[in-house]
Amino acid sequence: ELFVGETYALQVEGTDGVQSVERETHSFLVAPVPPPYPGATPQPQELLLHLQRASRPLTVRLVNPFPTSHWAACLPVPNGVPLALVHEGNAALREVAREVAFDGLARLPALDVFV
Predict the structure, then answer these.
(1) In which element (H, E) is residue 99 found?
(2) Disulfide: which of 75, 97, 101, 104 matches 85 by Cβ 3.0-4.6 Å?
């Protein structure tokens, strides 16, 4: 139960795996809602908080799979390797990003795959 006229703080914890995201605190004030007519019983109100999931860009590095003692260990990774980032949610696969790796590197933008 929240009270009208009071200020509340919502703390959002950082997460492992997303660098430089720390706990954030967001304050909000519960504003009064005028009754529909004089003397009416105050009605519950809905409070919507819009939060955005933290995300960061992803760098994919392709490496030669051969051990250093293998003759092919010094060969470069081919250019133009297509990559697809797929999210598995609710038993369904959904492609959320596509990129091509050059010189063994591909950079994917920060995405919220749960949208």
Answers:
(1) strand 92-101
(2) 97
Rounded to the nearest 10°, the torsion over CA 25, 30, 31, 32 is 180
From residue 61, give the alpha-carbon distance in Å to each of 25, 35, 107.
35, 60, 9
Torsion over CA: 68, 71, 76, 80 (sign): negative
Task: State the Cα–Cα distance between residues 61 and 105, nearest whole angstrom.
Answer: 5
**Model-wide pTM > 0.70:** no
Place of tokens 């995201």: 21
What values do phi and psi take at 20, rounded to 5? 60, 25
pLDDT along the chain (115 residues), means of 10: 80 58 69 83 76 76 88 89 83 84 89 66
